Amino acid sequence: MNQPLVFGFNMIQYYFFISRKPTMVLNHCLAFQLDFWMEGSDVSTPVDVRVPVHTLQPVKRYLDSRNLQYSIMIEDLQVMLDEEQEEMDSVARDAEPRSTDAFDYGRYHTLNEIYSFQDMLVAENPNLVSKMVIGQSYQGRPLNVLKFSTGGTKRPAIWIDTGIHSREWVTQASGTWFAKKIVSDYGRDPALTAILNRMDIFLEIVTNPDGYYYTHNSNRMWRKTRKPNPGSNCVGVDPNRNWDAGFGGAGASGNPCSETYRGPRAHSESEVKSIVDFVKSHGNMKAFISIHSYSQMLLYPYGYTRTPVKDQTELHNLAKKAITDLASLYGTRYRYGSIINTIYQASGGTIDWTYNQGIKYSYTFELRDTGRYGFILPANQIIPTAKETWLALMALMTHTNNNPY
Amino acid sequence: MRLKIIIVLTILTGITGSPSITIRPEVELVDNKQRISEQNLVTETDEVVEDVMATGELNPNHYPAQRAAKVVQHYINTLYGSPFKVFHLHRVHSGNAEDVADSGRKYQLEISVQEMISNTSGKCSAEVFFSRGDKQHSPQVQVMCEELLKINTTKEEDAFYQHLKKNTSLLSAEYLPDSHGHIEPDMKPLWHLASVASSFIMLNESTQDTLFNMAQVANVTQLATESDQLKFEYLILLHEMVSQEIIRWKLLVSWCPPEGVKVLQMEKLPHCHECEKPPNTN
């Protein structure tokens, strides 16, 4: 129990007295083991004293014998502390959902809450979901990936990540919703069931946990990793400029203080390297979808060059289908195209690398909105965003499943 | 068949003089059939490899037209915005760009703009001029909109103005919205006012290589005034999309219904590398 008010005493009962003659009491404080909580500066100012139970009677007798006025403020401090702690515990208990059904998907959650959610989801669906730790963040946090699989060995797979940029909170929140959606729909929705009967889905919800923690506790606008840069007082590398695709070229910065700092070398960030290693060793990834906010876009490679990808037409047409499905729910308009044409030139980007690894269906989302709220999207838009985005994801995943390569 | 198409294109180019689609010679036609068939389809949503500095008809979904259109949004807000009237770019329908001698580039745009509080949309025609060269001016904008700009918010504005004038205490707030996107209803007009005031800065700072949005109001303090104006000091965070930077500005803003929003003083604050903010509980 965290009781900052209690100093080194292991007592069951405490009594509080106010004395009108502080100096006299002070002289005896050592003998009585008194603890002054509020020291009076002059004779007319009352003094608050905490008295341990074993000197209670002597203190009372002492004060009475000198006609010192006192009143008992808190008769049993311990009882009060206990009651307060019980109240805090029960509030904490209510705040922690007992199941993923009780989890509030329409709220933004802390890192620990999301970690707990992941464990609960696995515990509730042991035949469908498992948690893999693919590495550690710079500050040592686990990089958790949920694997949704109905069996097989190294089945062709779909990768989805959210939260690589920590300030893009609607993405981690949506990722949490997607995880629940998958377990809810398997066996009920024919399209998703068909996908999972042949393919696996990997979902990394908090791809940048150090950054995410930092956005909760220090700076809501933090984007990068939290790795210090030697020789600079600026921290962090942009994890979406750290991939080995056009690394070093235009579309990223070499300045550690920049939000688009590429890092000292490709894959220098453990958050990135862990995914690289995972994808390479898996060897059977067929789609790779990296989710960001904001701008309302669905993008395909490249970001680092204007040279169109070989599969441009197919990726373009599939993107069109996906955003049409997305818009069908609430009318939310998305633009689509290659990164470099639609948003800006960006080098060292995730899906440029994954595409060059041979993962044809490589896409990046930029979720809601278009700048009105930007990164700080109201929580009441989380679920609508997740729902509409899911329709687009289903279009991408269905096409991937129906077009093996 | 392929050869025929190339010839046709060449002929067209020869006739018109300036092709609306620029074909860069160094781009490898890796998959010839697909690339050429794309270029022949002239639909809005088609993907065409654009020149670095796009000229002629623009793809409205690509960034050159979008960035220019955002500038129009900022401009409209500086003219017509208020604590109860904030405009946001909704859509770019079409765009065209041309170089103007050596002095800069001019964009012509057809866009839709939405007023966020009344939730009404309307179309606008606009021209945006970005100057080039040593003297970097802020972009020059001309715009013509339909009925949209005639939205009447007099009642709300007067009520809000009177309420603050009568109030003996001065308003202040921080983090609008808070980390979770929440704004107290009472504070919304101050958030809208910040959007409008920011538009002056965002307009001034915009180039063809930037796209600005207001990210958050870090804090706002109402200042006492002798005049009719209401005065506020703001610390505002802007987000610039291309660099992804958060830029902090201190603004001194005045407003009263007849005179509209004015930015009296503006100061760009240094980049805050480790901007600490207290945890937000909501």
UniProtKB/TrEMBL annotation, chain A:
The active site is at E366 (proton donor/acceptor). Keywords: Carboxypeptidase, Disulfide bond, Hydrolase, Metal-binding, Metalloprotease, Protease, Secreted, Signal, Zinc, Zymogen. It comes from the Eukaryota. GO terms for cellular component: extracellular space. InterPro entries: CARBOXYPEPT_ZN_1, CARBOXYPEPT_ZN_2, CPA_M14_CPD, M14A-like_propep, M14A_act_pep, Peptidase_M14. Its cofactor is Zn(2+). It is found in: Secreted. One of its GO terms (molecular function) is metallocarboxypeptidase activity. The keyword Signal applies. GO terms for biological process: proteolysis. Gene3D superfamilies: Metallocarboxypeptidase-like, Zn peptidases. Its EC number is 3.4.17.1. It is an enzyme of class 3 (hydrolase). Residues 107-400 form the Peptidase M14 domain. Its main location: secreted. Belongs to the peptidase M14 family. This is Carboxypeptidase A1.
